[in-house]
Structures are given as structure tokens and as C-alpha cells.
Amino acid sequence: MLKDKKIDILFHVRVVSMVGVLNLFLNPELKYNWRKASLISSKAQGKGINHAHCIRKWILKYLWDDKLPLHRLGQARWTPLEDEDITQDIKLKLAERAKGRYMKASNVVDVVASPEFQVVLKQKGFSKTSISERTARRWLAGLGW
After folding, report:
1. Range of 47's domain?
2. Based on the domain organization, do 93 and 138 belong to the same domain?
3. Which end of the chain is more exposed for a tag (fewer CB within 10 A), N or C?
4. Quick check: is 3 in a domain?
5. Contact indicator for 34, 56 with CB cutoff of 8 Å
6. Does a structural domain hold residue 73?
7. Is the same domain home to 90 and 130?
């Protein structure tokens, strides 16, 4: 699979680093432990301890879930605002709270954290139970408020 020229370079690097760690760790002559093998592989790539930890997580995820470490760089993420039902619910709740006053990001955070809205998010497949005020400001702009 890695010989395919269409494979993303970041994905390729991740898989090669995983293979490097496994080669070092599983070689009985070298006798490197799990952490040492990942640190050597990470250092060979010019990275540090945090990258070594990521490599270990990627390997374990692959072993447990059979999922390779894909990345999301350059990809747009889907937000709940793209769902019209959720957008309408947020607008309705915010309109009830606004009543001629200014809308603050904390109001959006409160609406999203409300039990009724959590049920809607869970039904739509979202597991995140809260949003930050920064996200709330972006949502307000996206809603045209």
C-alpha cells in the first residue's frame, strides 16, 4: 500500500514511523522497550517525546481497532450548524432568550449545554456535550447574529 504514489505523504510518514517502532521493539537482539523504541523512531524523524507518544497511540489504535492513523490537515470539519434542524433549534432558543437584548456567546454556550439540546445533539450523532465561548462566537457569526 505504501508504494502507491497516490498515498498522502503525512499518512506515509505515520505508517513508516509505526513500522520503525515495531521493528525496534520486536527485534530480540536490540532489547528496546516500548517507549525507548518509539523515542528512537521519533528522534530519527527530528521529533521529540510528544511525537513518540503519538506513534505509540497510532500503533495501539491500529492493533485494537484496525484503523490506520489518518490525519485531517486541510480538511474542513463538519459542524452541527450544517444541520438545518439544529440551526433552527439554536435560532429559536436564542430568539427566546434575546427578547430585544444583545446576544452573547455565553448564551449560545448555555443553549448548547441545556438538557433538551443535548438530546437533539445525541440523536444527530454528536458526542460533544459543550462548546467553548470562542466556538459560540463563530456560531453566532454563522447564524447571522
Report:
1. 9-65
2. yes
3. N
4. no
5. yes
6. no
7. yes
Question: CB under 8 Å to 10, separation ≥6 — which residues?
Answer: 71, 73
Question: Which comes out higher in pLDDT, residue 102 or 72?
Answer: 102
- Judge if 97 and 137 occupy the same domain: yes
Domain membership of residue 2 (yes or no) is: no
Which residue in the block uniquely carries the three cell numbers 443535548? 118
Q: Euclidean distance between the first and final Cα of the chain, in Å?
A: 48
- Taking residues 33-55, report their average pLDDT: 94
pLDDT in tens, 54-70: 999 999 999 999 888 77
Prediction pTM value: 0.51
Average pLDDT, the chain: 84
- For residue 75, what pLDDT is reported? 53
Q: Identify which has the larger pLDDT, 5 or 64.
A: 64
Into how many domains does the chain fold?
2
